[in-house]
Every structure is written in structure tokens, then in C-alpha cells.
Specification:
Layout (H helix, E strand, L loop, with lengths): L1 E9 L3 H8 L5 H4 L5 E4 L10 E8 L2 E13 L3 E8 L2 E12 L2 E11 L3 H4 L1 H25 L2
Antiparallel strand pairs: 1-7, 2-3, 3-4, 4-5, 5-6, 6-7
Amino acid sequence: MAIIEESVEIKCSPEKVFAYVTDVKTWPKWHSTMPTAVLTSSEKIGVGTTYRGTNHVMGRDMEWSSKVTEYETNKTWGESIISGGTQIFEHLAFAPVTGGTKFTLVYDMKVAGFLKLVSPMVFRTMRKQAKDNLNTLRKILETTT
């Protein structure tokens, strides 16, 4: 297991950050490696909601599916993501701070198969992408307010 944790402060309310981050239509806009993501269950978002999509990682397209495991409006979001032999438990936290929101992203990852052999490189790449994605998210939200 490896844990990746990154945070960013965004000059927007937790309500705005939460609404944007949990809208599947926005994911490809701020996740640089995610060309597609779609809702695969009912429109009501909450624990049990499911998604699927693709990530482009290390020159390969990898399909994934996920299920929301934690949902507290404007505060937390969690999901279990499966992609091949990799399982990621994602936890998002939205904390009010002076002038905006501290948004924290945590990936708790278990890898198997071939990826286990190259996992240090995968984790470094994912950490860098997480930082880049959070900066992109901050720029998007701060320019649309």
C-alpha cells in the first residue's frame, strides 16, 4: 500500500469546490490523465453511486470503475476505484479556511501484477499528477468566480 496526499487552498467556498469536484462532467477538465468519465448509476449522487472511465497513464489507456463509499455534502467524498489489478481508495476533504477552501486529496493504493514491479515509478508519477491536477483545479475555480 502507498498513500499519496496533496492539498491546495482555493479562493472559493467549500460549496462551490465540492459541487465542481463531485460533478463527473468536470473530471476530465482538471484531471490531466482522465480523457473520459461517466456516471453509470442513477442521477442521485451519494454512497453507492458508480462511475467508469479511462486514464491515460505511462503511455497506456487504463479503464477503471468506481463506487462512492463516503459522501457528506460540502465536507467529504470517498470512493473505491478499481483499474486492472490496482485498487485505489480515494478520500477528498473540503475544509473552510479564511478566504476559501482547503481541498485535500488522499489516494490509498494497492497494486498487483506487473505494476507492483514498477510501483515506485507509478507512485512518483501519480504524486506529480495529483499536484498538477490540484493546481489546475485551483486555476479553473478561481477564474470562474
